[in-house]
Amino acid sequence: MNLKKHKVLVTGGAGFIGSHLVDRLMKLGCGVTVLDNLSQGSLKNVEQWLENKRFKFLKGDLKEPDDAMGGVKGVDLVFHLAANPEVRVGETDPIVHFRENLVATFNLLEAMRKSESAKTLVFASTSTVYGEAEVLPTPEDYGPSVPISTYGASKLGCEALAFSYAHTFGLRVLALRFANVVGSRATHNVLFDFVKKLEADPKRLEILGDGTQKKSYLYIEDCIDAILCATDAFLRSEEKIEMYNVGSFDQLRVDRIAKIVVEEMGLKGVKFVFTSGVEGGRGWLGDVKYMHLSVDKLMKLGWKPKYDSEGAVRLAVRELLKERKSAKRA
Q1: Which of 48, 124, 249, 328 is the most buried if burial means most Cβ atoms within 10 Å?
Q2: What are the structural domains, with CATH classification, of the chain?
Q3: What are the residue ranges of helices labelled H in 201-289?
Q4: What pTM value is reported for the model?
């Protein structure tokens, strides 16, 4: 794999997806720098690498241009995963997504423009850039992209900025549009919310929306496999920009997820209380009710997810419960 010879920066590398990517890159033998402000991530996620000579941790914030410049120093490949991952915050405080996503990405791109070595960017984008897609499964060339959340809009803006830097300043940019990724170390998703609610009241579960929301869920290790597969192919190519959807083959309804969580927690007689939601049963304003990405393009590179949506969710719930049990013991 071409990645072995690269010196890599992972922004947001102490977070959920970022730390799993760091684990894999370190095992591949890469030199890895992590830049993270620890607002969402945790040093515990990368503590096994802190004493390794190939690993460097920088506590910094991409909203600060100097921190961005420090992050790209001496690296040639950047995985940009730093962002505010909470879609719902856009309904009450939209400036968060502007600052944490757009401003941070602009500063990183500026640092790469000025860098002598950091010229390839792998950007963690999202399925929400498509908005309410009329074509399911949704291919990468679907358009126009009309996001319905400030989170999706900010990520689409980040893609546009990055692509413009590729054409204007000679960077190379790979955008990966993720479905809902689940697994260990996650702290923001429907599984996490359901488990917390049921721990507080094991007889009642409030479910945002009407329960018929239907989306794709991808297990974290399948996601990391996809990132590495797409990145390796991109590094071998001569393309200036490229994009891939990263998701599973199928979809899963929210009410089914609730049942899986209840089963894995060993609970009985739980009453599901649906809020009915907004705008036709969405969980919140900006919630894309139906999402299913086409992954045909990525599969042509040889990648294939090991788990379907239900398998990914069930395994992720088990890992989450194990983590929470260990945390309580500590």
Answers
A1: 124
A2: 2-181+218-246 (3.40.50.720), 190-215+250-289+307-329 (3.90.25.10)
A3: 220-236, 254-265
A4: 0.96
